[in-house]
UniProtKB/TrEMBL annotation:
This is Chloride channel protein. SUPFAM superfamilies: CBS-domain pair, Clc chloride channel. It comes from the Eukaryota. Its main location: membrane. Keywords: Antiport, ATP-binding, CBS domain, Cell membrane, Chloride, Endosome, Glycoprotein, Ion transport, Lysosome, Membrane, Nucleotide-binding, Repeat, Transmembrane, Transmembrane helix, Transport. GO terms for cellular component: early endosome membrane; Golgi apparatus; late endosome membrane; lysosomal membrane; plasma membrane; synaptic vesicle.
Length: 837
């Protein structure tokens, strides 16, 4: 049977299934080739693990060597290289399993299929014992509920930490401007809540709150007061930034940055030890507060996802079901990322969709349920803490009561175009700066870089009231519609006494001097935010991108909204306004434009669509604004994709060289597996192990002389028939364990991977049986398999490596990094520059 490049679909799946020597008629009809293919491969692996599985027909015999030889004639097969005993499990486990076998080294990729089968084996073992005693039944129930327990603990911890971060960040942000004498732990707003001397016009001033100028020089107004407050603002900003970067550098280097690119890579199967550890959690929580309070152009929403994943990783070690299985642990991390977005934006449903759309690599249905539950628990805890005192989960929650009109779709789409252009510019500029940081001496001084960026930010931000504000408070002010109780300069409209019609809402009015002044200040703030965000994202402090991007979009949207509002007021007789905008009616809502612009700019940077619309919808609580949001977000994505399909997180993954195969990236080249596999034509031969002809010294020498992560096992050098695959780490651990625990194992001991030990002379030392660590069913393809199919297999099955055969004989190996190098070459990039070191 030959697979052609242009053949796809269910017909090929049914033909392949006939080659597996068992009936596939019990498999439910699949609408897509991939679902069927994954189901076939998963069942094929578990068939190798134990031929008598309940869902397999008992009349179908295990695959034989002759059948296997026929199967290897196809383009890709699961091969064993010999007959399979029906009682042999996947790892052919010994009575005493070798400690450490089956684990992974740092900066290595997990084997998803192997981990899945390990979990199936564990589950069958628990089910078979649960009727033996009440204790075994209790253990079975504990195992079944452990998934819900771990996501509950993760949600509780994420909500509690998010509330703590919000409260601390608000207090330390206000600390740059002054202090509350009546209660030092109160921020500015809380300090003036109970004051009886606060006026409506100056609601932010009260005797209990003292600025630094009042405390130090005793002046509340005048040039001296302004200069002293300016100096203290810069001093506190530099102090917070220096303390944050110092803690990160000394205690937890992994606590810097957003964390989402690394979490995406970890969820795809990559191991980064310590990235989700307790020290990272502790330092990230503390330094996130300091970084936000320093006034840098960053947000805490992205790092909150990292914080939640740290909680999920730590709690998963309390349950053996997750602590011993890397694939199951990633299900917890997917739920934790949903909880992180839930507390970051007060959007539980948006958090689940964010985990599904943006970060998760493997997302089964039960993970969807647990992600929803974790997001629910986290949001409930944060709501109970009520960090902002407004009974809302976020500071910038808004509600609009004015409908939008059809003609407004045009400015909404323009905001989408701006968001796409901003996203494309930011990704290119930020990646260029980060690459320069990596390649120059400037990157060797992260503390100095943070201090310089913080100093420039503080010096420029203080004179402008909109850049001096905390970014979340700025977004809140831009989102808020002008009402009778608003005292912001953005609401400084002239009252028109000649309005012919009065409605419940405040009608559109001509802009006053305060509005025009605010527009100029917002334009300067927009330029400042655009430039500083490029240089801030990626420095060695916790730095999120959600809030700065939303702030840029909100500024642009508010400016456009005011422009459209004034245009409709002065030209209400134009045909586009005539039907909807009567004189004295409340026609345009500038705050709505700010919200749409924020969504468009965030979508342009991250290329999120569905989850972003739902997050912003949950922020506003209005169903009728979904269409403008969808129009702006899709426009921003289309415009951004015209300049490059990568979002900022994928770009940083590629910059750092993480082994991540992005499902969004298409592979369209016509190369074959033989063109990519190693060894190449001029390379030394492939390092392989033989089934029963090598000694312990031979294997240790091969391990010491090479840096490969695993070795194919063949029957003999002459036949090159494949038997299985042994990992380097497993070989090392197994040999060390055998030397310690088994008598008679020496360097000249014969190593046997076969089921039966060959006959040896009487004076020979005791042989070492290592069949238990051998993967008897490595995934193989033929040398003529198109690379388009190989890339698809690696993406959808999460493989670490794939062996290449020709007529059943081993030719070479393709690893995940080989595919990434090949994809870089086809894109005219230097393969050596993109690989993780």
């Amino acid at each position: 049977m030959q697979w052609r490049d242009n053949q796809r679909g269910l017909k090929q799946f049914s033909q392949l299934s006939l080659l597996s020597s068992w009936d596939c008629s019990h498999i439910p009809p699949c609408p897509a080739f991939f679902v069927c293919f994954v189901f076939l491969v998963e069942m094929r692996f578990c068939h190798v693990a134990q031929a008598g599985l309940k869902f397999l027909s008992s009349s179908n015999p295990p695959i034989s060597a002759s059948q296997n030889a026929r199967i290897t004639g196809t383009h890709y097969t699961m091969t064993n290289g010999g007959s399979i005993n029906s009682s042999t499990h996947l790892l052919d486990l010994l009575d005493e399993p070798i400690p450490g076998v089956g684990t992974y080294d740092d900066f290595h990729t997990i084997d998803w299929v192997r981990e899945k089968c390990k979990d199936r084996e564990r589950h069958r073992r628990i089910n078979s014992k649960k009727k033996e005693s009440a204790w075994e039944m209790t253990k079975s129930l504990y195992d079944a509920w452990s998934g819900w327990l771990v996501v509950t603990l993760t949600g509780l911890a994420s909500g509690a930490l998010a509330g703590l971060i919000d409260i601390a960040a608000d207090w330390m942000t206000d600390l740059k401007e002054g202090i509350c004498l009546s209660a030092l732990w109160y921020n500015h707003e809380q300090c003036c809540w109970g004051s009886n001397e606060t006026t409506f016009e100056e609601r932010d001033k009260c005797p209990q709150w003292k600025t630094w100028a009042e405390l130090i020089i005793g002046q509340a107004e005048g040039p001296g007061s302004y200069i002293m407050n300016y100096i203290m603002y810069i001093f506190w900003a530099l102090s917070f930034a220096f303390l944050a970067v110092s803690l990160v550098k000394v205690f937890a280097p992994y606590a810097c940055g957003s964390g989402i690119p690394e979490i995406k890579t970890i969820l795809s199967g990559f191991i980064i030890r310590g990235y989700l550890g307790k020290w990272t959690l502790m330092i990230k929580t503390i330094t996130l507060v300091l970084a936000v309070a320093s006034g840098l152009s960053l947000g805490k929403e992205g790092p909150l996802v990292h914080v939640a994943c740290c909680c999920g990783n730590i709690f998963s070690y309390l349950f053996p079901k997750y602590s011993t299985n890397e694939a199951k642990k990633r299900e917890v991390l997917s739920a934790a990322s949903a909880a992180g977005v839930s507390v970051a934006f007060g959007a539980p449903i948006g958090g689940v969709l964010f985990s599904l759309e943006e970060v998760s690599y493997y997302f089964p249905l039960k993970t969807l349920w647990r992600s929803f539950f974790a997001a629910l628990v986290a949001a409930f805890v944060l709501r109970s803490i009520n960090p902002f005192g407004n009974s809302r989960l976020v500071l910038f929650y808004v509600e609009y009561h004015t409908p939008w009109y059809l003609f407004e779709l045009f400015p909404f789409i323009l905001l989408g175009v701006f968001g796409g252009l901003w996203g494309a510019f930011f990704i290119r500029a930020n990646i260029a700066w980060c690459r320069r940081r990596k390649s120059t001496k400037f990157g060797k001084y992260p503390v100095l870089e943070v201090i310089i960026v913080a100093a420039i930010t503080a010096v420029i931000a203080f004179p402008n009231p909109y850049t001096r504000l905390n970014t979340s408070e700025l977004i809140k002010e831009l989102f808020t519609d002008c009402g009778p109780l608003e005292s912001s300069s953005l609401c400084d409209y002239r009252n028109d006494m000649n309005a012919s019609k009065i409605v419940d809402d405040i009608p559109d009015r001509p802009a006053g001097i305060g509005v025009y002044s605010a527009i100029w200040q917002l334009c300067l703030a927009l330029i400042f935010k655009i430039i500083m965000t490029v240089f801030t994202f990626g420095i060695k402090v916790p730095s999120g991108l959600f809030i700065p991007s939303m702030a840029i979009g909100a500024i642009a949207g508010r400016i456009v909204g005011i422009a459209v509002e004034q245009l409709a007021y002065y030209h209400h007789d134009w045909f586009i306004f005539k039907e909807w905008c009567e004189v004295g009616a409340d026609c345009i809502t500038p705050g709505l434009y700010a919200m749409v612009g924020a969504a468009a700019c965030l979508g342009g940077v991250t290329r999120m669509t569905v989850s972003l619309v739902v997050i912003v919808f949950e922020l506003t609580g209005g169903l009728e604004y979904i269409v403008p949001l969808m129009a702006a977000v899709m426009t921003s994505k289309w415009v951004g994709d015209a300049f490059g399909r990568e979002g900022i997180y994928e770009a940083h993954i590629r910059l750092n060289g993480y082994p991540f195969l992005d499902a969004k990236e298409e592979f369209t080249h016509t190369t074959l597996a033989a063109d990519v596999m190693r060894p190449r034509r001029n390379d030394p031969p492939l390092a392989v192990l033989t089934q029963d002809n090598m000694t312990v010294d031979d294997i240790e020498n091969m391990i010491n002389e090479t840096s490969y992560n695993g070795f194919p096992v063949i029957m003999s050098k002459e036949s090159q028939r494949l038997v299985g695959f042994a990992l380097r780490r497993d070989l090392t651990i197994a040999i060390e364990s055998a030397r310690k625990k088994q008598e008679g194992i020496v360097g000249s001991s014969r190593v046997c991977f076969a089921q039966h030990t060959p006959s040896l002379p009487a004076e020979s030392p005791r042989p070492l049986k290592l069949r238990s660590i051998l993967d008897m069913s490595p995934f193989t393809v033929t040398d003529h398999t198109p690379m388009e199919i190989v890339v698809d297999i690696f993406r959808k099955l999460g493989l670490r490596q794939c062996l290449v055969t020709h007529n059943g004989r081993l030719l070479g190996i393709i690893t995940k990094k080989d595919i990434l190098r090949h994809m870089a070459q086809t894109a005219n990039q230097d393969p050596a520059s993109i690989m993780f070191n």
